[in-house]
Specification:
It comes from Gracilibacillus marinus. The chain has 383 residues and is an alpha/beta fold. 41% of the residues lie in helices and 18% in strands. The chain has helices at residues 14-23, 39-45, 61-71, 86-94, 107-126, 154-168, 185-188, 209-215, 233-237, 241-254, 268-276, 288-303, 327-333, 346-355, 369-382; strands spanning 5-10, 29-34, 50-54, 76-81, 99-102, 141-146, 173-177, 217-218, 225-227, 257-261, 279-285, 312-319, 338-343. It binds adenosine-5'-triphosphate (ATP) and magnesium ion (MG).
């Protein structure tokens, strides 16, 4: 395959078309601009690498995206919307589009992201394995960490997991602390800040990447983005299920991985986050009291009508030779897959906590057993 990409622009908007054309390297790519009525003919004529739709006043946008993907599933579809009709955008993504941007605000974001998308596309096409790790906006994964019992290691695991993915891949990663009452992530990551996710409330209906990055903190070693929870009682009252759901959807659009640290208390916010998550990692200790709490959580979630069968996985924490139950016993007692086991590493983990330093700081560094286990877990997720 030649390195030249075939880019098709579907547009009736001359000004936007010209702005997009100016941002594409015309020597390295072959670019064709067509009108929306010519989509089927042009798609059938030859294989297209990229199709960029600039929203027109037609009702066929969703069908056209579907059609492009049905002819050649690898074609990378980008939708540039001229208004932020959320239900239209959701349907566009469902139809298989890789990305969307809302103009005019996000035009510069699109332009800055386009080279990465081209690289991702080339990787995807060149890769022998279909499962190559490809990152792109619009279909970021939400991984939530939960446990019905407090103090099981959610915050430590979620933040080290996020840090590991950020350090060991090219992905954009966001860590979100939803412990609205007590927080916790800011201590482990030693952040001092007066901004929290509640500051997104005024813009929650039009939330975009810029808003999120204005409020999030950047961890200085890995450049992981972190959204801290508010700690004053008044701020918490502003947050409800609708807020959580809008927040997570916007985060998913802008980051490849959104790692959510959840509190043990089950309320509207926790339930919404669990439902939005692609994976719910339940952090479990291998002892009878912890299994009882897990059973109780299963019953409660069933009563609440939550379907966790396909999304919930177990992360075994604090494993050791003295464990009351062995992993093979647990496999028989628990009906969810055990995705990772993390060794008990009290002294070394505590040293970091006492120094107020994040456990992972560089891609190449000496790893304590806890970090090695988290790395194994993170690698299994990335591959
Ligand atoms: N594998 C491990 N080995 C040693 N210590 C650990 C391990 N996992 C967690 N810890 C320690 O256990 C304590 C509780 O961990 P953490 O705060 O992450 O739990 P949590 O589930 O988030 O608790 P909370 O209910 O307070 O939110 C911390 O002191 C942490 O350092
Ligand atoms: Mg915690």
């Amino acid at each position: 395959m030649s390195e030249q990409l075939d880019i098709l622009i579907v547009s009736e908007e001359e000004t936007i078309t010209n702005q997009v054309l100016n941002s594409i390297n015309r020597e390295e790519n072959s670019v064709t601009v067509i009108e929306s009525k010519d989509v089927s003919r042009e798609i059938n004529r030859q294989t297209r690498d990229f199709v960029i739709f600039i929203q027109a006043n037609t009702d066929y946008a969703v069908e056209q995206v579907q059609y492009v993907k049905s002819i050649h599933a690898l074609t990378y579809v980008i939708f540039l919307a001229t208004d932020s009709d959320i239900s239209l955008l959701r349907n566009i993504m469902r139809a298989g589009a890789e990305e969307f941007f809302i103009l005019p605000d996000e035009l510069s974001l699109f332009i800055s992201r386009f080279p990465t998308m081209q690289q991702n596309y080339k990787l995807r096409v060149h890769s022998d394995q279909e499962s190559a790790v490809v990152f792109g906006r619009g279909r970021g994964q939400i991984y939530a960490f939960y446990s019905g019992k407090g103090g099981t290691g959610r915050t430590t695991i979620a933040s080290t997991f996020a840090q590991t993915i950020k350090l060991e891949s090219a992905a954009e990663v966001l860590l979100i602390d939803l412990n609205l009452q007590f927080g916790g992530v800011e201590t482990i990551m030693s952040l001092e800040t007066n901004r929290s996710l509640v500051d997104l409330k005024p813009v929650i209906h039009e939330l975009n990447e810029n808003h999120i990055r204005n409020v999030s903190q950047t961890e200085s070693h890995s450049k992981l983005e972190i959204l801290i929870s508010p700690t004053d009682a008044e701020a918490q009252e502003i947050i409800d299920g609708d807020f959580i759901s809008r927040l997570l959807r916007a985060c998913r659009r802008s980051f490849d991985f959104c790692i959510v640290d959840l509190p043990s208390a089950i309320d509207e916010n926790t339930v919404t986050a669990m439902e939005e998550a692609d994976k719910l990692y339940y952090v479990l200790h291998a002892d009878t009291p912890s299994l009882k709490v897990l059973k109780h959580f299963e019953e409660l979630s069933e009563r609440l009508g939550m379907d966790l069968k396909s999304s919930m996985e177990i992360i075994l924490n604090q494993t050791s030779k003295e464990m009351e139950l062995k992993e093979k016993d647990l496999k028989e007692l628990v009906r969810y897959p055990i995705t990772a086991s993390i060794r008990k590493d009290y002294k070394k983990v505590q040293t970091f906590m006492n120094k107020g330093e994040p456990i992972r700081k560089a891609q190449k560094e000496k790893l304590i057993p806890f970090s090695k286990d988290i790395r194994k877990f993170a690698k299994s997720v990335l591959s």
